[in-house]
Amino acid sequence: MDSNDPNYSPLRDVAQSPEATARYLADVQRVLLDIGKNLETLALETRVHLRGTNVEGDRWYHARLRAMPVEKALGNVLRNLNNLTEGLEKSAYKRRAHDESVVNTAKDRKEREIERQRKKNPPTLQAAPPPPQQGAQNQNSGYGGPTSIYDLGKRESA
Q1: Are 89 and 29 in contact (CB under 8 A)?
Q2: 56: left (phi over 0), alpha (psi -120 to 50) or beta
């Protein structure tokens, strides 16, 4: 690609490859996790400082009540950051799954077409061999013998 091209986008190459997309999203996730560690430290230090700030005439819980909105805001930022990093990981997996489904789609379509053709034109069935003549039956015919003691006829039972 030419960087002088007005339609050039540096992420176009990354978007076209699932491996490159996964690497890029992993790098972004790594940076966000580092920022998250710094924000966690900031939230803890802010909490300690704000809860330790007392004004004359305060009761023991007033500083805590004043600190709660700030703590809640930082907690929301951390929660959103964690959701963002989870979303990045999920999108990398979904990108790879998309490419795999694209590859498998052509194969599945061929298999379905073969199955449709098989259903439209079923293979011809061979005729079953004619049953053996009753008089020509072998004594050790196995499953071909009588099925009940009443069908024995002239034969003797065991």
Answers
A1: yes
A2: beta
- Inter-axis angle of helices 62-120 and 18-52, nearest 10: 160
Torsion angle of C-alpha atoms 132, 138, 143, 144, degrees rounded to 10 = 30
| Residue among 158, 155, 123, 116 at smallest CA distance from 139 | 155
Look at residue 33 and tell me whether its pLDDT is greater than 70. Answer: yes
Q: Give the whole-angstrom CA distance, residue 144 versus residue 137.
A: 8
Over residues 123-156, the pLDDT tens digits come to 777 777 777 666 555 555 556 665 666 766 666 6
C-alpha Rg value of the chain to the nearest Å = 39
| 79-109 pLDDT tens trace | 999 999 999 999 999 999 999 999 899 899 9
